[in-house]
Structure formats: C-alpha cells, structure tokens
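Annotated sample (chain length 281).
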Amino acid sequence: MSETEDETKGLEMGAVDYITKPISPPIVIARVKTHLRLKEANDVLKQQNALLIENAGLKEDVERITRHDLKSPLNPILAYPQMMKDDENLTEKQVKYITTMESAGRKLLNMINLSLDLYKMEQGTYEVQPVSVDLMQVFNEIKEDSRIRLKAKRLTIETLIEGEPAGESDQFMLQSEKMLLYSMLANLFKNAVEASPRKERITIELKHEGDHSVAIHNSGAVPKEIRDTFFDKYTTAGKSGGTGLGTYSARLITETLGGRISLDTSEDEGTTISVFFSKPV
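Output written by the structure step:
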C-alpha cells in the first residue's frame, strides 16, 4: 500500500512514520534510531515537566509558610504600640514615634498579604473591590514613609493637580483599592528617589482630564539596556540587592486595576512614569 491516500490514512490513524518496499536495511536502522532518540527525549521532557510542577507546588507551600512565619513576629509590633500609647507619661514626640512604628507594622502586614494577591494577579484570578480613594492622602503617606531617603538626598517634592500646585486640603479621588494603589505608587516613587540626582526635584502630577492620570518625574535617566524591558519581571540594573520586581509588580497592579502604565526617559529630559485609569462610564 504505497498510494498517497494510504499513507495519509495511516498517519491520521496514529502512525508517526512509515517505510515502503523494497525495504533498505540501512534506512530502516536509521529511522529506528531516530525514533528511539525522540522517545528518549520525550521521556526526559516528561520528567522535567513533572519536576517543574512539583517544584512549583513546593514554591507555593514555602511562600505560604513564609508569609505565616512573617506574620507571627508582627503581632507584638502591632499590639505593643497600642498598649504603650495608653501610658500617660509619654511626650508628644514619643507618641508620634510610636504611632509611626504602628503604622509601619500595619503596612508591612498589608504587604505580606499583598504577596499572595500578586500571585492571584499573575494567575488572573484576583477580584478587584474598588472603593473611593484619595490619591493625595496615599502620596502623603508615601512621602512620610520616605522622608529619611528624601532628607538623605536633599530632594524636594512638588505635587500638581491639573498643572497647579496642590494645597494641603486638596483631594484627588478615584475608584480603586487603596492598598494596591499604595504598593504600586510607593514602588514607583521609591524608584524615582533612588534614580534622582541629589538636591533635585521629584514632581508628582495628577490629572482628571480624559483618563485619571498620575505622572512621577525625576531628573535621572533609565539605563538604555533595560528601557525596553523596564516593566518585565526581574529587570534591574545598577542596584545592589535589587530584585527587579518593583516595576513589574507596579505594571501587574496597574493592569489588574484596569489601567495602563508607560515609561518616557532620556538623558536630557529625565524619567517620567505615567499611570492611566479609565473613568467609570
């Protein structure tokens, strides 16, 4: 049976190869060796795939255990400040310090919980539960948490709303999740502080025109070798101990919240990272 339709039928029924008469022993041996090598390679791939699945499951277990173990030491960090503030002998400055410690502990707890949320975002299973959030309040918290870094580099911060300097009582409201916004914007702000030259200005510009937009600008430039992969996982350059997860998580959170993120950078103009959120219809 050597007609084309016979060969086609055989392959459709599950055959992976065929030989025709008259049989040539060297060709038969060569084909058998080829299929043995393919079989061995396929077996190796199956073993590697099984190992990857096992490792992925182990990684999830380790991460869950780690999150649990990290939460345990936080219990006294969160409980003791509240107990200490009940002491009437504390000065105003001491109360301020204790409150800052308590706030930092709560943020750390939220970030531990966020690590699980990021996994859900990667899997596309995270469900957003939006509420009204004031971005001015979020940025005030970020600046307060970053004050030591800002002071060390002697940086100034300028916040604009619709192009005008923002006042202390101004608000910038949008529907979102506060913890996700805080994590995303804190990462972008931290990058701006690290990349900015000393004694320079970081500008935060908020706009309601068109889409809701947030733009963070600093005078430094992103290295050319990572500009095309800036928001990719594990992308980093020039940072000792950098994980390359900050801008990746910022992109992941932005997209989960239904927004988009972009980078504009050059040696002459510095770097601006812009985040856009569509207004509700």
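Annotation: The helical segments are 4-12, 25-85, 92-123, 135-145, 147-153, 178-195, 246-256.
Annotation: The mean pLDDT is 86.
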